Amino acid sequence: MSSSKASRLGEEIWKTRVDKVNAELVILTYGTVVAQLCKDFDGDYVEVNKQLDKMGYNIGLRLIEDYLARSNTMKRCSNFRETADMISRVGFKIFLNITPKLPTDQRQ
C-alpha cells in the first residue's frame, strides 16, 4: 500500500470509525488505576510494576486486534521498515490522530 493511500486510510478511519475520548479522562483513569494497585499491593512497587506491565501487554494486544480489524489491510508487510511505516501512518492516526515521522535508515 502506498504511503499516501495509507495516510488517507488512517485519516478516514479517524474521522468516521473511532469513538473519541477526552485525554484528561484517560489520564485520570490511569492515575486512579495506579493508585489502586499501590493500595492493593501495600506499596510493593515491584509487584505494581509487574501488574502494570501485564496490563500494558494486554492493552497492546487489543490495540493490534483493533488496528487489524479497522484498517482491513490484507497485504503483508515485507520487512520491518514497511511494518513501522504502516503503523505510523495508519495505527497512530487511528488511535491518537498523529502521524509520527520515522527515522531514515542510513544502512539502505
UniProtKB/TrEMBL annotation:
The keyword Cell inner membrane does not apply. Keywords: Endoplasmic reticulum, ER-Golgi transport, Golgi apparatus, Transport. GO terms for biological process: Golgi vesicle transport. It comes from the Eukaryota. Signal peptide: none annotated. InterPro entries: Bet3 (IPR016721), NO_sig/Golgi_transp_ligand-bd (IPR024096), TRAPP_component (IPR007194). It is found in: Endoplasmic reticulum; Golgi apparatus, cis-Golgi network. The keyword Zinc-finger does not apply. GO terms for cellular component: endoplasmic reticulum; Golgi apparatus; TRAPP complex. PANTHER family: TRAFFICKING PROTEIN PARTICLE COMPLEX SUBUNIT 3. Belongs to the TRAPP small subunits family. BET3 subfamily. This is Trafficking protein particle complex subunit BET3. It comes from Parascedosporium putredinis.
